[in-house]
Amino acid sequence: MTNLDARLTRRALIAAGLGAVAAACANGSKRPVALPTRTTTPSTPSPSPTATATTPPPDPATVKANELGVIPVLMHHRLVDKVESEYDMTAAWFRAELERLLAEGYYPVTTLQVARRDLGHVPAGRAPVVLTFDDSTRGQLHYANGTIAKDSAVGMLVDFAREHPEFPAVASFYLNKDPFALGDPHRVVADLANLGMEVGNHTYDHVPLRLPAAKVQEQLGKLAAMVGTAVPGLEPHTMALPLGVEPSLPKLARAGRWRATSYRNEAVLLVGAEPAHSPWHKSWNPNKVPRIRSSSYGGGKGEFLSTWWLDQIKASAVTRYVSAGNPGHVTFPKKYADRLAPAYRGVAVAY
Ligand SMILES: [Zn+2]
What we know:
Blueprint: H1 2-9, H2 12-17, H3 23-26, H4 49-54, H5 60-63, E1 73-76, E2 78-79, E3 88-89, H6 91-103, E4 106-109, H7 111-115, E5 127-134, E6 143-144, E7 147-148, H8 153-163, E8 172-175, H9 185-194, E9 198-201, H10 213-230, E10 238-240, H11 250-254, E11 255-258, E12 261-264, E13 267-273, E14 289-293, H12 306-314, E15 330-332, E16 348-350
Parallel strand pairs: 1-5, 1-14, 2-3, 4-5, 5-8, 8-9, 10-13, 13-14, 15-16
Antiparallel strand pairs: 6-7, 11-12
Helix pairs in contact: 6-8, 9-10
The structure holds zinc ion.
């Protein structure tokens, strides 16, 4: 623990989470998964405004709410049969990851929902997690007999949600040109959108954004134009930096224009290597959202990979975000009050 403590202390993010009680996480898989407490129609995955207005939120202490805790943003690249690098995982590994996330009380949300602080639908007692997929590789989405293949990441997410309605099929996909190597973006972008997946921007040619202004805007605008052509009206609103390389012109990673297409990214994702801050935390920075690599390379045991971080969270070395089920407010134990971004004091519920 000494080495671990020292390592964590070096990281400002983790320092902010150290010492936390996080009793909600302490029992990990033994802890029952809290179901939504607000009444809603069975066919509606998110509580309606009416339901939230008429159903009081639970006692935050009972659900151990802490909406200033960290959110793991997991990063996936290739789902393959033969794992060759830290960019790879098997389908079986991915399925096991979903099982673990469900057992440990996580609830999938998109990057954009985090960036917009649109997390009021996360059931009380559950912890948001973001599943991101870069490079639009074939293992993430392909087809068999005309339908989405069950061994693709999208197919597994959909099947898993069917078996476990309390874990919806929600993820953020960061596309390049010719997504999923299928030769035609129309169907795949439409299928992702229809399933409620976030379609994000990973540049057209997958090039690090150390480029002149016109080229940066071409890379992001051209990909946005591809998405908007495939599904009219659809726009990427978040982006993942290729190779995690910081752009030479950061403002153009956020917003710009190429030909008739303007784009605006409300969050910019990095590559490594720690959980993200809550968007209500004073250190939240939408321009640099860290992610955690998920991989089965070497048994998936490497430091700072998803298994390692989920173990840290489970052991309460880091305090995770746990929803209060109280939309429109940010709820946390009083001892964390100094972590709140001052702009949100007016909606704070400290207990
Ligand atoms: Zn990439």
